[in-house]
Batch of 4 targets.
Target 1
Amino acid sequence: DYAQLSIFAKVIMVIGIASMTII
């Protein structure tokens, strides 16, 4: 469960950085 949560957090962080880069 913890590993899955960590991956989910990483995905959210990458999406956030990507959106900031696009904007």
Target 2
Amino acid sequence: MSAALNISIAQAKGPRLYRRRDTGIWIIRDTVRGDRSTGTRDRREAERALALHLARSQRGRVT
């Protein structure tokens, strides 16, 4: 008798914020489009930059 294998496939996390320890600058981590600096140390400004990044990346996608 063979047991069924439970194999999980890793999925991309999607764009997210990452704070660099050396500079304190927030980076948008995006495995598809590459990392991009937000240019700010302020979390709220970084969140706005991420929202804009997500909106721009959704443009042109057909669902």
Target 3
Amino acid sequence: PICRETLEKLQTHVLTHDFPNQTEEIYFFKFLKPTVVGKLLMYLYLAEVELNKPMENTTAQKAYLRGTIQTCQNYFKENQSLYRYLKRKRNDRDSEYFLRKASVLAWEKKAFTSYTDPLFSTGYDTITATFIAYNSLVDRIQHELQGIERGGVPAYGMELIWTASKVDLVELIYALHAAEVCNNGQATIKQIATSIQHVFNITIRDYYRTYLEIQDRKNSRTKLLDTLKESLIERIEEMEKL
């Protein structure tokens, strides 16, 4: 994954080069490294949440997700001194938090990654990265909870806009119909098309004519589906490398 490769490159650079001054070192450990590590941690935590999430009923799912949010909030409370410091955008203790030197308080903290080599961490940078990861994770879980409360309807605070071509969308509509994955295979082309247009806030005037164009393609007749398949496989392989 890009974030891990970036982190490894940063680690190699830091271990083989000196920072020109303390200001640059503070910037690296306060902002740059935590951003990269935070993104990596967020995906790891998200994968763990999905793996352990109960599937039997929505009540169990909601309880589990709320428990995960509470775990994140407990971490914020345990480290509230640094959390408030960062939230208020203070810099008066930057040299204490974000310069590489022995810090008993920092190294007593938990939830560290393998990137806590004293030469590549101040201790507090990893806690900062965990803040970033947990904030993103809580955001995603809250959105998922809203969706569950609304009967599975996503509630992400913004509408979905179809940004591929209309031909691609028609390909998706006909694929869903052909696979009989909507309403146990009882949904018609028109019903699927109407629902899809509503979800993506788009209008398709003559999807049957567009379907004929898809039939007449010289090369692949399933360009979008091929792209979706390749993209999903790539994503799965990336997650397996984490």
Target 4
Amino acid sequence: MACLLILNVGACHAQDNITANNTQTDYQSENLYAAAGDAQTPVTTGNVITAAKTVKDYAEKNNAIPSTVQVGSQNVTKEQFTYLMAQAILNINRDGKTTTTISPVTVSQAPNSTGKATGTLKKSNYITLASSVANFIKTNGRLPNYATTVIGKINPESIAYTMSRILAFYNDNKRLPNYVTVKNIQPTNSGSSSTTQGDTSNSGLTQYLVATANCQVNDPSIQALASQLTKGLASTWDKAKAIFNWVRDNIDYNFYYNTRYGAVGTLKYRTANCCDHAHLVVALARAAGLPARYVHGICTFSSGTYGHVWAELYVDGKWYSADATSSRNSLGVINSWNTATATILGTYASLPF
């Protein structure tokens, strides 16, 4: 039971990082994970420039890159936005046109992000960096762990911030800067494993307790059902299990792409794909005071390999898988697809599609 198909899957390269001095672009295969029927459409270079200003301001206030970014009329992940910014810089450098379109691709997180380099990159250096990052993503389907440049290794968060500064400069001055100063932004740890403790501080969990896009935690129907399902239950585990079991047993699976109904609509119509199943699980859990988040991955089912979304619930210091799309699954246990071979593309407080 999956909601997003993988298209154009090539041989996966084992490369872990990039060297910005390497300008080779003749790759034999690409590993692009794209959602069939995905609502994400091409954006203009101008859309990316406008969004980059927002990202720059956010990064300078929070010392982090936002997990999702609105580009034009759609949301993309920060990993996707790094790719879009790299392509936008290359487009501007090539012809100066802001109307040139860029197609978003699905980009997974860097598995072992590292690099603390700071300093100044000349225009030729950052153009090479943008080209290398874009080519790495197109080849590997994920962010690099770091980029090696003339000033040393730069981590993905710092790469994104640097690119946002370049595009913000272009927005204000209608030209690319002669140089850019790289500042170190350490990557945030959002976690990807169903049993990884991750950030368990109060501040780290707050984002997993509030209403987000299509997760209407404060809606009366969500609040009422969450209260009904958890009434009289003392333990966090029992509350999480009651919510998971209800969604699994009362919402029929229906194949379509991305979000269609959201949590409230799913509760109303009692039918959903994987995205909307996750929306309802997450909304009910958060309404009951249980931290909950979304996971997006590439999963192998008996029928084939697909993009898939499921929820995770935080119980007693650990994250537990909550894939309510199949009666074969239970809280913390997935039997409907092969967890040993799954590729995690992202973990989110707010699902961006």
